[in-house]
Amino acid sequence: MTVYKFYTYPEHIRPRVSQLVILPPFQEMGHATRLLETVYEHLTPLPEVVDITVEDPSEDLIRLRDFLDCKRCLQLAECAEILCEKKTEVQDGGEDAPPSAKRRRQSTTVVEGQSASAATRFSDVARKRLKLSRAQSRRVYQILTFFLLVREKPEAVRAYHRALLERTRITH
């Protein structure tokens, strides 16, 4: 594993994991998970670290990073509290009146009608306490919001799917 420390104004650093190589005989034994957890354990408490990023990750590394970041967010009391507050809104599928296009572009919400404050608070807590980048904190919020959906309510799943497609169109 290689981690480079990039300078961030004024006196901070942004560590970047550039490669994570596990040889074939040692794959699927949890070594990559443990290595990435160790990087997080050593770099997260440092006050000069702004966020921990990954340079050009493979699909497997994206999946591993998402898993670890979701796990870390669920273990963090503030993030779990924010998710529990919004669980009922997500299950109801949001409000009927969608916000304007400009407001949707500026928000970090996933479900239409969901208050921007929950997504913003979640993102802020994840960025400060877990040293996640803004994009990764949004991604983790989306994953955990989908995790909270009640699958027996197809209208909630459809509303989430529509909102996620809309967010994807706006950001790309």
Percent in helix: 55-70%
Shape: globular
Biggest sheet descriptor? 3 strands, mixed
Strand order of the largest sheet: 1-2-3
Given the helix and strand composition, which structural class is it?
mainly alpha
Q: Outline the low-pLDDT stretches.
A: none
E-strand count:
3
Strand content: 5-15%
Q: Given the structure, what is the number of helices?
A: 7
Radius of gyration: 17 Å
Q: Average pLDDT value? A: 82
| End-to-end gap | 31 Å
Run of helices and strands? EEHEHHHHHH
Please give the domain count.
2
GO molecular function, one term: histone acetyltransferase activity
Protein name: Histone acetyltransferase type B catalytic subunit
GO cellular component, one term: chromosome, telomeric region
Region (Disordered): 90-113
Please outline the helices and strands:
Elements (H helix, E strand, L loop, with lengths): L1 E7 L3 E8 L11 H13 L9 E2 L4 H17 L1 H16 L8 H6 L9 H14 L4 H15 L5 H18 L1
Parallel strand pairs: 2-3
Antiparallel strand pairs: 1-2
Overview of this structure, please?
Strands 1-2-3 form a three-stranded mixed β-sheet, with no helix packed on it. The protein is built from seven helices and three strands; from the N terminus they run E-E-H-E-H-H-H-H-H-H. It is mainly alpha-helical and 172 residues long. Helix 2 crosses helix 6 (134-148), helix 3 packs antiparallel against helix 5 (116-129) and helix 5 (116-129) crosses helix 6 (134-148). The protein folds into two domains: 1-56, 3-Layer(aba) Sandwich (Aminopeptidase); 77-172, no CATH class. The chain starts with a strand and ends with a helix. GO terms for molecular function: histone acetyltransferase activity. One of its GO terms (cellular component) is chromosome, telomeric region.
